[in-house]
Amino acid sequence: MADSHAPSTDSAHAAATHDGHGEHGSAHDMHLGLYLGIGITLLVFTLITVGLAYVDFDKMLGGHGWNIIIALVVASFKVCLVGAIFMHLKGEKKTIWRFLYFTAFFVAGLFLLTLLHYADPIFGTSYNTH
Amino acid sequence: MQIPYEVQARPDTGLYNAKLGIWLFLASEVMLFGGLFSAYIFLRMGAQPGYWPHGLLNVPVGTFNTAVLIASSVTVVLSWAALKMRKFQQYKLWMGVTIACGLLFLIVKLAYEWPQKFHHFGAFIKQTSLEKYEPYLGNEHLKEKNLDPRVEISGHLHEVVIDASKADKGKLDAYLKKHHLTAEPDHHDPALTMVKGEHLTPGVAEKLVMIPNAADPRISGVRITGYEVALDPVNADPTNPFNERPHFWYQNHTEKLARIDAADVETVSSFAPKHSPYFAVYFTITGLHGLHVLAGVLVMIYLWLPIKGGALLYKKNPEHLANRVEVVGLFWHFVDLVWIFVFPIFYLL
Prior knowledge:
Chain A has six helices and no strands. By secondary structure, chain A is an all-alpha fold. Chain A folds into two domains: 22-89; 92-120. The two termini of chain A are 42 Å apart. Chain B has helices at residues 17-45, 59-84, 88-118, 134-137, 139-144, 169-178, 202-206, 233-236, 277-304, 313-316, 318-348; strands at residues 121-125, 152-163, 182-185, 193-196, 223-231, 257-261, 265-270. In chain B, strands 1, 2, 3, 4, 5, 6 and 7 form a seven-stranded antiparallel β-sheet that branches. In chain B, helix 2 (59-84) runs antiparallel to helix 3 (88-118). The chains are: A mainly alpha, B alpha+beta. The interface between A and B is large, with 59 and 63 residues.
């Protein structure tokens, strides 16, 4: 992931960093459409998130908590788009990805600890009555 | 002293200083918000049936604010791209739009959404009194459908009934006058006093107990004995299947009034943080998120204004300004990213 820089993007960045006059702005020109496209996709998926919230998936699929899972999957997809395109993580330097691996590890640990109480729920809570 | 790699990227990492710094900062921010989301999960999982509210927030307004943040994420990246292309006027335009979006988000939140919550009244009924309020709760109907019970009656606080027989009358009159409230004998029990007025909010009502006793100013002279509430649709028509699931459009309170005895109430408050674990974690997370929006807006205003470290930097070193915009942009996208999770977990689920 970290090494898969798009060559065109890299050279444009390097050029823009060194020349300071902007003759190499065409790469950014090309991205303008992409940024707008991602923005529109995010807006569409926001409406999808809202729409999905009014579908009773538990009734449809059986079980409990489907709406939460589906909403979080859509939200995670949106977050990936923001991260990859707007935050330029697609083709970002190795050092940044290393920070993120560590963060992902610790945040996963945090949520793992949180979700451990599925294994030992409190009696009389919403979780337990379904 | 010239600090190395302030503008140019360090050859081995390919990064300039501020980019390295902002990503380390964002990593710590992930843990900060991660901790709060973890608190949300614990509170939600630990809630007793009926005690985790649904459909109390205004979904269209939340959707609008989400769209505003997404739009600002696009414009901030466009402002950075404009600087990279050395199009200064475009930079000013897109950065200006981003700042406007950030301010719009905050205005909607602080001037509309939050105050609406502070005027909303909710009373959690004691388990032993739920049956008495069945006409407003519809729990038999919910039980048949295997749905969580309702334990709260909410709406607009119409009037509050107090026992003011031992109150310091001067202090009570002054308090009523200050809040433009009127007092008259209660219809049901003339020994009690009925306080009402357009400016009667749950917050104003609950502070009535601060009025001292005429004989002993160290103790309270007012006792709240009941509340009259213009019911929310869910309590006005509790067996209507339409009210079983949250709605997209915000449902304003009805004209149907209900009387709730203070003795039957577990807790009572506006939709403030103390209302429930739900609102506590809602205000904590959206409050912290709002502070991040404010911080981002302030930094972007700094970079937009024609001042030394801001837009004037363009003449001296346009790449340096572009780097600064990239860094605030990364922060801004992170703020958007947090909201992408906040919106469904509080407004929709």
